[in-house]
Amino acid sequence: MNSEIKNCQNCKQEFTIESEDFDFYEKVKVPAPTFCPECRMQRRMIFMNERALYKRQCDLCHKDVISVFPANATHPVYCTPCWWSDNWNPLIYGKDYDFSKSFFQQFKELMSVFPWPALDTIEPSMVNSPYCSISSYLKNCYFFHNSDYSENSAYGAFTERAKDSYDLFTIDGCEQCYEGVNLVNCNCALFSMNCENCHNVSFSRDLTGCSYCFGCINLRNKNYYIFNEPYSKEEYFSKLKTFDAGSYKAVQGVKENAKSLFLKSPRRFAHSRRNSKTTGEYVNQSKNTQFAYQVIGAEDSKYVHFLIIAPTKDSYDLTMWGGNANRLYECMGCGGGQDDVKFSYGCWSDATMNLEYCMVVKVPCTNLFGCIGLRRKSYCILNKQYTKEEYNLLCDKIIKHMNDAPFIDKLGKVYKYGEFFPAELGQFAYNESVAQQFFPLDKQEAIKQGYNWKDSEERNYKIDLKSQNLPDHIKDVSDDIAGKVIECAHKGECNEQCTTAYKIIPQELQFYKKMDLPLPRLCPNCRHYQRLAQRNPIKLWHRQCMNVGCKNEFETSYAPDRPEIIYCETCYNNEVA
User: Fold this and answer.
1) Is this prediction's pTM over 0.85?
2) Cα-atom radius of gyration of the chain, to the nearest Å?
3) 277 in the Ramachandran plot: left (φ > 0), alpha (ψ -120 to 50) or beta?
4) Contact assessment for residue 182 and residue 170, using Cβ atoms and an 8 Å cutoff
5) What is the 3-state secondary structure of 487-551?
6) Is 208 exposed, middle or buried (0-12, 13-18, 19+ CB in 10 A)?
7) Organism's domain of life (predicted)?
8) What is the number of other CB atoms lying within 10 angstroms of the CB of residue 140?
9) Antiparallel, parallel or unpaired: β 126-127 and 116-117
10) Is 270 exposed, middle or buried (0-12, 13-18, 19+ CB in 10 A)?
11) Taking a C-beta distance cutoff of 8 angstroms, is the pair 324, 335 a contact?
């Protein structure tokens, strides 16, 4: 089938459906989408809240719990042990399909009575890590999200296998790291990003196999460099003392100096490696995968993002997770050994297949349509059990009904079979959801686009210290600062889920003193947003290499109006030291 240009229902912009896209839609038996790829991704992200946490009670055991759902949520919420227990049966919420209502209206009714997990974690795998969400196998961790297999760490997202590290985003296999973005197998990497197999590097980016580098960029297998200038070992450590990285003021100065150097140095058009016929950013070891972002080990896929566990094959519009996943389409937070899953959220388990329009199915199930939280079940619709023959016949009728009597949202967008859940079914306000991190909106624009918005609650914190009054140097910080309420420098005036105040936890203070690092001036959420701002967006532009005489073209996440010098792969490799 030839490619077609369509107009997005949501943003009204044109987008192209290529001939190979139609081949995929035919393979998984779905119609072509009516939303553009970016709006599809934004819509999926609305359904996930990873950072807005609340204190409430479990509606089953009535114990106090930390949850992504506030106390006034309209549906039941169970603590993690209760949700995973056998003390309740998800099938009791099953309901007959009503052809007088749209499918999405009926699914919303099921959502409103079904018990949701307070935090999306696996209880036996979490040890002393109560303020962490969408995570597993954490020990002594605090405020970790979308992360696994880490210990003695705090304030991380998309972090795998971290130890004794703080303030992280997209990290794998790192120890004693701080304020890191895109670090792999690094030890003692501070204020650095896009580094791999590095040791004792600070204020640096795009380093591989380097040790003892400070304020450097584009180095390979180098030791004892400062702002890309080589030093002897003795000269390096002597010079390093003059920067005094324990001072907050000094750190800001170093950052500015490093930024000046970075803008003069060429950047590779994409932070991606070992790929074949692939476009995107932060993509590794992938093949025939297009418009990907933060992906490892994907094959024959398109519009996939944050797939941090390989492999993922033959999938479109999959955001977050992956991991032995095959033929997934329009899914959020799905993976872990699944096949043929469509239009679903928060579903993961080995031997799970043939799910459509399902949520939080986390143990093996097959052949489910419009179900929530079922366990080891097959042939269910809206959490009601059917025979195989009844299931297949009713599914066909429901799909026809979804097309004949579609759900129409308050802005007039039409949702037939083949579209992900309408945003109106989302349980979170836009500014609570992951969408705010990657597609930030202010209140006025969010409401205009039909999304819910949560106004900041009056916290009435008793501020012990203003951030501007914190000691400049870590050596002047006394132990009694741990636990004090510190006013965030943003004071809630930003659009970054600011908590307006924060505390330094004891183990965090010990880390700062051990590593000779100044105290932060922003709350954890605002710090997280500063790390996000260092990364390139989830978007591609067609550009030409900026090296004089080179005419190579490529797709890059560096917009044309940005100040960086962007090279093709060949020119970049010829340039780096």
Assistant:
1) yes
2) 25
3) left
4) yes
5) ECCCCCCCCCCCCCEECCCHHHHHHHHHHCCCCCCCCHHHHHHHHHHHCCCCCCEEEECCCCCCC
6) middle
7) Bacteria
8) 14
9) unpaired
10) buried
11) yes
> Where do the structural domains in the chain lie, given as residue ranges?
1-47+428-455, 123-268, 280-404, 465-534, 541-575
- Short-list 249, 101, 268, CA closest to 194: 268
Q: Amino acid letter at 98?
A: D
149: alpha, beta or left? (left if phi > 0; alpha if psi -120 to 50): left
Closest by CA to 339, choosing from 310, 367, 375, is 367
- Give me the long-range contacts of 191-196 (CB less than 8 A, separation at least 24): 191/251, 191/254, 191/255, 193/534, 193/535, 194/271
What does the pLDDT look like over 362-411, one tens digit per residue? 999 999 999 999 999 999 999 999 999 999 999 999 999 999 999 999 99
Give residues with Cβ within 8 angstroms of 387, minimum separation 6. 379
- Is the separation of the CB atoms in 297 and 254 below 8 Å? no
Long-range contacts of 438-442 (CB under 8 A, 24+ apart): 438/41, 438/42, 438/45, 438/532, 438/537, 438/538, 439/38, 439/42, 439/45, 440/495, 441/495, 442/495
Instruction: Give the pLDDT band (50/70/90) at residue 218.
Output: very high
